[in-house]
Amino acid sequence: xxxxxEKQLAVLKEWMAQRKSRLMDEIREVLARxxxxxxxxQVGEVGSMGDEAAARLLRDISEAEVLRDIGEMRDITAAxxxxxxxxxxxxxxCAEPVGYERLKAYPSAKRCMPCQQHREKTRAxxxxxxx
Length: 131
Ligand SMILES: [Zn+2]
Fold this sequence. Notes:
Helices cover 60% and strands 0% of the residues. With 131 residues, it is mainly α. It has one domain (6-127): DksA, coiled-coil domain (Four Helix Bundle (Hemerythrin (Met), subunit A)). Zinc ion is lined by residues 91, 93-94, 96, 111-112, 114-115.
């Protein structure tokens, strides 16, 4: 059962849409500055492209800042897909509600706090790629 109200969901959706357009601006700017402007348009698709296509594109980009922003954009796109599928706000591991407080701090969170902590404990720090 999802515990989010329509209003809470609207707030989170709005936040993610704004965050995404800010990330896009940032990515375009860094790519333009580093002479990779020709990648900028493709990067706009990176949230919705497959992992393989995204990996291919990212191989050409070496700016850590951009890679981090793209990772966040993909997280947000995945969250939007969960909203569309009606699974947003539910933990992907245990299916319990993630909780509005946690989502407010981190709207693209996939897992509830206990599952997240468990995952961080069981993964090597070098493989840690995000929440
Ligand atoms: Zn969980």
